[in-house]
């Protein structure tokens, strides 16, 4: 069953096929959203609005040359077609000025993909009622976004992909009167008032601990639990070339040693690109069907993310990666640690809810540095003692998910991208928390 967004996109693709000259090929990407945004401050609505927008990315190819142009779309079909014609005319003028692209590789198969995920979006009055009821006396600051996101693709070779998915994302912080904060998030496709309330209650409990005297630790190695949000920061760093075929082929990947077999992680560590069942479309913006990809299996480097360009340059088989070759739906296999047992198993050490401002301090060694922030607590004998002052960590992924890894949690958290720069995103991660024997704090 087609949707109004899909019908507009199909009409645009049909008009493009009719306007094509002999010898020309095209790919046409489509992005759209209809989102409700609400900004909260002191747990009250301070700003509310809706955004409906759509855009297209046209790529024209002829005689081994390619050029692309993005343009905004609206509700006027005639105006949209004129914008398409203008973009096509501009690209025809540009192409002869460009050199032949030696690594141009188009998927010439006439693949078809169609997915419409339309679970009921949260009743906004229910969201407001829960916030008022359970956080009305708190300084809650955050942004709520919900609505359908659409992605489309068509090519002159007959390929056609359509993806539409409803989702919500509530990203908030609870601030203590002393200026410290607990950061939390609840996101997904199927809203549960109970799950939201549980997440909010956990944040409220952590907020109370922030009122205790701050504990300052000396630099050193500490036993630690990294919550899924903290693990997401680490996993996001791996998207900076960690699984990229291009980065691995040129020696610029932080996981170079893992993929050459010179290093390995704990055998329980398994990362995969799990597109199926995620919010991401099952086709790339480059025009290839996406596959689920086992990236790290039993702690060893396995497959890599290969874009069409890398496939042509390095004689590899593409697997639907976009040009930047970063995961769009990264999943880390769960472990055996029950969430209810986290503090008891941690015993004495750090409970780290979030990490911040990460970067590589030694990229070939997969060594990362960053700050603890928001709700980081010192725990003794399974009991939270108080918040820890912000500190810098510096440690290698090979240590944290290697010999220092004690266990991963059974329960995993779905973390959706909170980025709204330009448009809402479809990226996600599905991650457990990690209990490690030692995390190095430097200052």
UniProtKB/TrEMBL annotation:
**Transmembrane residue ranges:** none
Write down the Pfam families for this protein, in alphabetical order: PmbA_TldD_3rd
Q: Where is the Metalloprotease TldD/E C-terminal domain?
A: 219-441
User: The organism sits in which domain of life?
Assistant: Bacteria
PANTHER family xref list: CONSERVED PROTEIN, TLDD PROTEIN
Q: What is this protein called?
A: Metallopeptidase TldD-related protein
């Amino acid at each position: 069953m087609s949707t109004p967004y899909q019908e507009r996109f199909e009409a645009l693709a049909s008009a493009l096929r009719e306007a094509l000259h002999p010898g020309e090929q095209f790919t046409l990407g489509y992005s759209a959203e209809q989102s409700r945004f609400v900004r909260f401050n002191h747990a009250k609505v301070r700003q509310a609005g809706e955004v409906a927008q759509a855009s297209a990315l046209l790529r024209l190819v002829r005689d081994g040359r390619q050029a692309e142009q993005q343009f905004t779309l609206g509700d006027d079909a005639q105006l949209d077609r004129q914008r398409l014609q203008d973009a096509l005319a501009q690209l025809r003028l540009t192409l002869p000025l460009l050199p032949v692209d030696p690594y141009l590789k188009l998927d010439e198969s006439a693949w078809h993909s169609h997915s419409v995920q339309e679970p009921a979006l949260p009743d906004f009055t229910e969201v407001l009622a829960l916030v008022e009821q359970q956080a009305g006396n708190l300084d809650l600051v955050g942004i709520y976004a919900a609505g359908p996101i659409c992605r489309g693709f068509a090519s002159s070779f007959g390929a056609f992909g359509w993806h539409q998915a409803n989702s919500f994302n509530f990203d908030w912080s609870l601030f203590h009167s002393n200026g410290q904060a607990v950061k939390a998030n609840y996101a997904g496709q199927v809203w549960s008032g109970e799950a939201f309330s549980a997440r909010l209650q956990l944040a409220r409990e952590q907020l109370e601990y922030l009122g205790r005297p701050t504990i300052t630790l000396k630099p050193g190695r500490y036993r630690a639990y990294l919550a899924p949000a903290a693990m997401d920061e680490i996993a996001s760093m791996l998207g900076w070339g960690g699984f990229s075929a291009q980065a691995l082929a040129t020696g610029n990947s932080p996981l170079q040693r893992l993929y050459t077999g010179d290093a390995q992680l704990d055998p329980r560590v398994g990362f995969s690109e799990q597109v199926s069942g995620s919010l991401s479309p099952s086709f790339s913006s480059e025009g290839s069907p996406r596959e689920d990809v086992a990236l790290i299996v039993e702690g060893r480097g396995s497959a890599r993310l290969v874009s069409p360009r890398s496939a042509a340059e390095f004689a590899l088989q593409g697997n639907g990666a976009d040009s930047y070759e970063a995961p769009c739906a990264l999943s880390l296999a769960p472990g055996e640690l029950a969430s209810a047992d986290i503090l008891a198993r941690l015993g004495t050490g750090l409970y780290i809810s979030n990490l911040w401002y990460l970067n590589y301090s030694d990229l070939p060694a997969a060594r990362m540095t960053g700050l603890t922030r928001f709700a980081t607590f010192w725990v003794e004998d399974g009991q939270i003692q108080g918040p820890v002052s912000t500190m810098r960590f510096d440690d290698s992924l090979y240590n944290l998910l290697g010999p220092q890894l004690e266990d991963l949690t059974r329960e995993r958290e779905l973390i959706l991208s909170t980025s709204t720069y330009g448009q809402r995103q479809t990226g996600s991660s599905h991650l457990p928390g990690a209990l490690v024997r030692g995390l190095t704090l430097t200052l």
